[in-house]
Structure to design on (582 residues):
């Protein structure tokens, strides 16, 4: 099967989804109002609430939601064949992720940029907020722990990526200062930043930084653990500074990498005439995890991801300039991540192996597929870049930099969101000292995932590519289902048709609940007495919250909804002291 034909078909479907389905959602489901005064204007503080150009905000949002997951998940999931993986990526992106990401952003903007957890209180019940906040806390802990280890393993495995990744930080700050002080458009400065970043890839290749000797001298048995500590120290600092200083310029630089990486993959596929050598549906070994439901938690980001609701309602909604921008930022962000997942599938099915026999050696078992997934993507992308005249060693560093850049940006945002979540939980619990102490909340936000990332595992990779990854995927998808429940109730209360939200909601809740039950018994059988209780707690909280949402949805349906516009604060409302007045 020709890889370029598959790529063009998938991208065409994504384009149709954005052109038609997102327009339907914008007009008929979320009813966007171009005159609505967004929280970025109403609550502008120059730190978190900052009105931002939609293209710059897309850069922040996309690179925050992308991370390593839309690469790693698909790179593992082709174990069952490229057909099921791509079907879920396409259907999930168009009909689930787009609805979820777009909805979480639009609804948060209508409620003063509240988080999806706080929205659960407004839309469903007081108990729902508490339940959702606890689930979100677990999810963000897993996100930060998993991504820190993914980045650390890549920095150890590809030491040429160290210089470009860390020099990008002061480079982004300098660009941010220039844009802020000159009040200039971000496009040209950010493109300059991309050029600088790629020059640094060449420098990094010539001067690789290997911290293994230092880690050994400091007593670390795994070199990656030292990187994990460095990464969390950086994330704590990054989460405390204003978004325009580092987050926005770095995200905008990294957003260009999506198009560059996809361009490299697609051009490399076309020029090289690559064929997909993996089977459409694989004959997996006996005892392998079942495609149902495990495929749908293995590919989380890239199809639909609950973490996107946290980012959309956590940082993105505070920066939205116009409500109508949420279609471009939210739905297109989902399409961008689906495109990245497509690139990952192409790299590991057409780029990393020349024959089906060679490919089967890389995906002999689920464990082999999981452990080698990131390396398969990097090597596959390097082979595509090689068709463009890029040396394989430089191509590998380029691919590693792309993955690390996305993952690090997600970690930056996720630590900031975890701080918000800790403060919200403290507020609910009445712990005023913690709810108002940004430093203490930030310490808690990094300390718990840091401890989890440093947990010993069965091998040098710890839990990341085994049970912890699957638990992350399950919790992530479950959070998406619960976010869709909030969105469904909100839409129904406004007398709009909720079917576009209910269909992906029912599917996700079914698959993730099934996966939680399967994993619980596996954890018990394997003696995982830390992860088994965690799995059980998440399941109980989820069932409770689903019941709360079902009651609220039934009530909204019985009441027949009410006319939209109850919170439609326009410029006139603000001036006349109408319903949107502060």
């Amino acid at each position: 099967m020709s890889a370029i034909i598959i790529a063009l078909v998938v991208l065409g479907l994504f384009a149709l989804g954005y052109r038609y389905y997102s327009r339907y959602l914008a007009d008929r489901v979320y009813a966007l109002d171009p005159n609505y005064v967004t929280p970025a204007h109403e609550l502008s503080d120059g730190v978190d609430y900052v009105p931002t150009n939609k293209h710059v905000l897309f850069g922040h949002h996309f690179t925050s939601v992308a991370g390593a997951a839309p690469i790693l998940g698909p790179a593992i999931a082709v174990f069952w064949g490229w057909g099921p993986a791509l079907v879920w990526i396409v259907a999930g992106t168009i009909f689930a992720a787009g609805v979820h990401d777009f909805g979480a952003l639009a609804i948060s903007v209508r409620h003063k940029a509240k988080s999806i957890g706080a929205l659960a209180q407004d839309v469903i019940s007081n108990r729902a907020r508490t339940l959702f906040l606890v689930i979100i806390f677990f999810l963000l802990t897993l996100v930060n722990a998993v991504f820190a280890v993914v980045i650390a393993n890549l920095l150890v495995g590809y030491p040429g990526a160290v210089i470009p990744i860390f020099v990008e930080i002061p480079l982004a700050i300098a660009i941010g200062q220039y844009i802020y002080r000159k009040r200039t458009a971000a496009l040209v400065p950010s493109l300059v930043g991309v050029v600088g970043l790629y020059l640094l890839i060449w420098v990094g290749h010539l001067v690789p930084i290997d911290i293994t000797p230092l880690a050994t001298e400091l007593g670390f048995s795994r070199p990656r653990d030292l990187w994990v500590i460095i990464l969390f120290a950086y994330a704590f600092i990054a989460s405390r500074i204003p978004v325009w200083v580092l987050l926005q310029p770095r995200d905008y630089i990294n957003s260009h990498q999506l198009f560059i990486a996809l361009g490299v993959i697609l051009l490399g596929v076309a020029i090289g005439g690559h064929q997909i050598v993996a089977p459409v549906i694989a004959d997996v070994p006996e005892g392998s995890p079942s495609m149902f439901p495990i495929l749908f938690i293995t590919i989380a980001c890239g199809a639909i991801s609950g973490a996107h609701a946290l980012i959309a309602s956590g940082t993105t909604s505070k920066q939205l300039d116009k409500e109508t921008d949420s279609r471009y930022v939210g739905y297109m962000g989902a399409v961008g991540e689906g495109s990245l997942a497509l690139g990952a599938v192409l790299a590991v099915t057409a780029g990393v192996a020349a024959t089906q026999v060679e490919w089967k050696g890389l995906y002999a078992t689920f464990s082999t597929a999981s452990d080698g997934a990131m390396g398969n993507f990097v090597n596959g992308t390097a082979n595509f870049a090689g068709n463009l005249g890029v040396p394989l060693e430089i191509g590998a560093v380029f691919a590693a930099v792309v993955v690390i850049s996305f993952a690090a940006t997600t970690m930056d945002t996720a630590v900031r969101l975890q701080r918000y979540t800790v403060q919200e939980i403290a507020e609910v619990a009445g712990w005023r000292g913690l709810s108002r102490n940004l430093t203490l909340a930030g310490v808690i936000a990094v300390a718990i995932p840091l401890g989890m990332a440093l947990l010993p595992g069965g091998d040098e990779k710890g839990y990341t590519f085994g049970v912890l990854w699957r638990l992350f995927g399950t919790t992530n998808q479950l959070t998406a289902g619960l976010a869709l429940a909030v969105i469904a109730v909100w839409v129904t209360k406004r007398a709009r048709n909720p079917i576009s939200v209910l269909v992906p909601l029912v599917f996700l809740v079914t698959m993730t609940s099934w996966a939680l039950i399967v994993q619980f018994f596996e954890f018990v059988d394997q003696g995982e007495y830390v992860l088994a209780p965690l799995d059980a707690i998440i399941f109980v909280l989820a069932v409770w919250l689903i019941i709360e949402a079902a009651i609220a949805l039934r009530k909204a349906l019985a009441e027949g909804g009410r006319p939209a516009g109850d919170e439609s604060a326009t410029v006139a409302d603000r001036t006349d002291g109408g319903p949107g007045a502060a």
Remarks:
- The chain has one domain: 3-576.
- The two ends are 59 Å apart (CA to CA).
